[in-house]
Amino acid sequence: MESRRILVAGAGTGIGKALLDKFNSISEAEVIGFSRKGIRWERHSDLEAGANYYCDLLDRQKVFHFCNTLKSKWDRLDAIYFTFGDGLFGSVENLKLEDWDRHIALNLTSAFLITKELLPLCATGTLLCYLSSTAGKQGFPESTAYSASKHGIAGFAKSLREELKPQGIRVSVVYAGAIDTDIWAGRAGFNKEDMIPASDAAHFLSELLYMPSSFNLDEVLFYPPKGIL
């Protein structure tokens, strides 16, 4: 069977890193990741499956360069997992406009840019999986920026789903509950032992690629056992 070619956008930490590790354990998968913590590279021949490569999503020229390089290496993609993003928390009166702009650019605009640039590699059966959050379904105090970005990625994915139906491209938006990642660093009142391990979330998300082609999981919602923390 021909191997599946997978891109993990945001493979440096958390769920993205766990997904890269998960797909690397599957013999029928070729996976490339990228993040701000990745390996430096120059040519498309430097991009070998199994590793996480450098790309700063806040630098649009670097995003374009990475996408063009990947298109010169691979002629198709079977899945793209959009797992990147950071948290921005605090009351509205204490949020700085430049922090807001940077947050939206990373968490939302970058997904649009990558999708637009890599759609030529997508065809019938390709999975585009966008990681949102329970904050993409409801609001939480001192989370206006984060919730706005996660509502935004969900709206983008749901509209894209309708747009790409004729091509048979699968689009899923995942509303994830609390997962043990760096986003919780410095936030009081949360016990990481109550959260889903990133490796468990990656195991579940990887299975979306191997679902039968007869249906599409438009929206996926999962929580840790204690629900919303």
Automatic annotation (TrEMBL):
InterPro entries: NAD(P)-bd_dom_sf, Sc_DH/Rdtase_CS, SDR_fam. CDD domains: SDR_c. Pfam families: adh_short. It comes from the Bacteria. GO terms for molecular function: oxidoreductase activity. Keywords: Oxidoreductase. The keyword Endoplasmic reticulum does not apply. Belongs to the short-chain dehydrogenases/reductases (SDR) family. This is 3-oxoacyl-ACP reductase.
